[in-house]
Amino acid sequence: MIVLKTRREIELMREAGRISAMALKVAGEAVQPGVSTFEIDAAARKYIESQGAKPNFLGLYGFPAAACISINDEVIHGIPSKNRILKEGDIVSIDLGAEIDGYNGDNAATFAVGKISDEAQRLIDTTRESLYVGLKKAVAGNRLGDIGNAVQMYCQERGYGVVRDFVGHGVGRKLHEDPSVPNFGTPGRGVRLLPGMTIAVEPMINQGTWEINQLSDGWTVVTKDGKLSAHFEHTIAITKDGECMILTKPE
User: Fold this and answer.
1) Which helix (H) or strand (E) holds 107?
2) Average pLDDT for residues 73-86, to the nearest whole number?
3) What is the pLDDT, as a whole number, of residue 135?
4) Is the pLDDT of residue 247 over 90?
């Protein structure tokens, strides 16, 4: 069931989104050669808790950390560890969120570790831009297929694979709500977008095939061909007046 949010609820989600966005910024600033993913997770968690909020990934479905931190060919759900040390040339996707006053925010971005290859930078840039291409279609009266198709076409035309097995989702009192928000689809198909809908749009884009595998830890998802992957995400609200409202904006 899709829950439409009131103006007051969206304001509460804006605060959850602000904290989520600032925590992602803190995490991104910690990304550098020689730093462990455990340290990055700890920095994000400390910030979220300093704001009186709760890291909403921590314990979700049993996940053991405040952030999913995925390196290079890891698509999503990488588990932070003191043994995962970043090195020059890596790319790191960080996905995290915060809950406050009963409402959630969720966002993600991919960061460069020092100097990276031109190919890795192009993947990051394309994935980031595809998110905003999709958000241009996130207007009342359109359908979810319009968003997904915009992301899919933008990335596929540039030679990238669009992950099918994991998608975006509704956000609200629960971190994961209806509807599912694919990064692929057919224009004019799918759920109609209505004012008050709050969703997470999150392209997960691979340098090669769209196909993925899950590692034996039960969490980490990797590209099937071992090539790089990037991930960007915003939580948004559908408005009455044209453009969507991005809820996960830092200060």
Assistant:
1) strand 103-112
2) 98
3) 98
4) yes
Write the CB contacts of 31 (distance below 8 Å, at least 6 apart in sequence).
Answer: 40, 86, 92, 94, 111, 112, 113
Radius of gyration of the chain (CA): 17
Q: Is 14 helix (H, G, I), strand (E, B) or coil?
A: helix
- Closest of 44, 46, 5 to residue 21, by C-alpha: 44
Q: What is the largest CA-CA distance in the chain?
A: 48
Do 202 and 183 touch, CB atoms closer than 8 A? yes
Say if residue 251's pLDDT is above 90: no
Whether the predicted pLDDT of 242 surpasses 90: no
Q: Under a CB-based contact definition with an 8 Å cutoff, are residues 176 and 167 in contact? A: no
**Cβ–Cβ under 8 Å, residues 231 and 72:** no
- Classify each residue of 55-79 as buried b or exposed e, where b means 16 or more C-beta atoms within 10 Å of its C-beta: bbbbeeeeeebbbbbbbbbbbbbbb
Which tokens go with 174?
């629960």
pLDDT average, residue stretch 128-148:
98
Spell out the domains of the chain, with CATH numbers in brackets: 7-246 (3.90.230.10)
Q: Is 9 left (phi over 0), alpha (psi -120 to 50) or beta?
A: alpha
For 84, counting Cβ atoms within 10 Å of its Cβ (0-12 exposed, 13-18 middle, 19+ buried), the class is buried
Enter the pTM of the model: 0.97
